[in-house]
Each structure stands twice: as C-alpha cells, then as structure tokens.
Amino acid sequence: MYMHYGPSPAALMWTHDLYMHEPLRLITAHFVHCDPHHFWWNLPPFLLQGWMLERYGKRAWLIGVAAGIAGVDIYLALWPGAPMVYCGLSGLLNAMLVMIVFHIWLETGYYPVILIAGADFVKITAEITNGGAIISSTSWPSVPEAHAFGFAAAVVVCAFSWPARRLARGYPATPEAGAT
Predict the structure, then answer these.
(1) 23 C-beta neighbours (distance < 10 Å), count
(2) Which residues contact 63 (CB under 8 A, 6 or more apart)?
(3) DSSP code at position 62
(4) Rounded Cα gap, residues 180 and 169, in angstroms
(5) Are 93 and 135 in contact (CB under 8 A)?
(6) Nearest CA-CA partner of 88 in 123, 139, 125, 53
(7) Residue 14, SS3 per DSSP
(8) What is the DSSP letter of 174?
(9) How far apart are the first and last CA of the chain?
(10) In angstroms, rounded to a whole number, what is the distance separating the alpha carbons of residues 141 and 156?
(11) What phi, psi does 121 have (nearest 5°)?
C-alpha cells in the first residue's frame, strides 16, 4: 500500500476515534507506513518471515498475521495511553516471529530455537524501558507496546494450539498425560 498511497495515508491509518466506524482500518493500518525508512525497515522482514511461515502452510501464515493484527488492535483500542494514531507492521512482525519459532520447535523438537523468541522478548522489554525503538528510527515515535502485544497474542495462539498439534501427531495433549 505504501508504494501506491505514499507515507501515512490518513484514510488507511488507525485512529482511535474512527476505528469503531471504519473497521477496515483495524487491518489497513498495519500495512501503511509513516516514511520510506519505516517502510523499507519493515518490508524485508515481512517478506522473509512470510516465506518462512508459509512453509508450514497458508493457514499458519494467516494465523500469524491475524494474531499480530489482533494483538496490536487490542492494545490500541483498550490500553490506557495507547497512541491515538497508528500505522506500521512491527507488532505483526513480532507475532510472525513467535509463530515461526513455534513451528520450527514443533518440527524439530529443538528447544534452543526458543531462545530466538526469548531474544525478541528481551529486545521488546528494552524498547519499552527505553521508551522507543533501539534498532531503528522513523519520523514517528516507535510504539514498543504494540510489539509486545503482537508478541503476546502469538504466544497465546501457540499455547492454545500446542495440545491440539500434539494430539494430531498421536501424542497425549500434555507430557504428563502420557506418563504411566
């Protein structure tokens, strides 16, 4: 959308006073950006993470994107002190990263891969503590809480889908249930 509409098209951005009347903004705001730096900082990770997540099926990609959008939108709509205007992909990218780590862990059983999500959690915590992004800068202030809510939404999705995935593979829903 950035290539077509340019930076921060008001008709597509999330604004606190309009989201109830224009629900499409709950989705479009995640795909518009405030400046070229913001756009180019988000596009390559979105393409790479999208490709990695799509390896586990289009449904995995859709769930990762939906979790990120839902988590950030919940933050923007309900959290006291959330910005009145928002655009960006970063919260969604954090959700997609969690989903990728989850799928790699399910596929391989390799627990250290979870450290990738742990490093992202540490980065988000540092950003919230610092009051802004620690890696990039844009013409608008960073919203690290949106990163946290995207991350948290994906963790919730993974937590609820883990027992179902274990059952689908013929394992008990929890490790303790299989112990005799």
Answers:
(1) 10
(2) 99, 157
(3) H
(4) 19
(5) no
(6) 139
(7) strand
(8) S
(9) 55
(10) 27
(11) -60, -45
Instruction: Answer yes or no: are the C-beta atoms of 8 and 33 closer than 8 Å.
Output: yes
Q: Phi/psi of residue 138, each to 5°?
A: -130, 175
> In a structure prediction context, what are the per-residue pLDDT tens digits for the chain, which is 180 residues long?
545 555 566 667 666 666 566 777 777 777 776 677 777 888 898 999 999 999 988 988 999 999 999 999 999 888 888 777 777 788 899 999 999 999 898 888 888 899 999 999 999 999 899 887 777 666 667 788 999 999 999 999 999 887 666 556 655 555 455 444
Q: Which amino acid is at 69?
A: I
Contact of 131 with 122, CB cutoff 8 Å: no
Q: C-alpha angle with apex 104: 142 to 147, nearest 5 degrees?
A: 10
CA distance 161 to 115: 20
Closest Cα to residue 20, out of 74, 80, 75, 77? 77
With 0.85 as the threshold, say if the pTM is over it: no
For each of the domains in the chain, give its residue range(s) and CATH number, in order of start: 2-178 (1.20.1540)
